Amino acid sequence: MKSFNGDIMVSNITIFGLNNTFAKEVGRFLSDELEMFFADVMELLKFDFINLVEAQNIVGKEYILKQERVKIKTLSSYENTIISCDFRSLNTPDNYANLHNGSVMIYLKLSNESLVEINKTFKDSSDYDLFSDVTINYLESKADIVCDVSGLNVEDSAKKAVTSLMEYYKQKGV
Question: Is residue 62 predicted with pLDDT exceeding 60?
Answer without folding.
Answer: yes
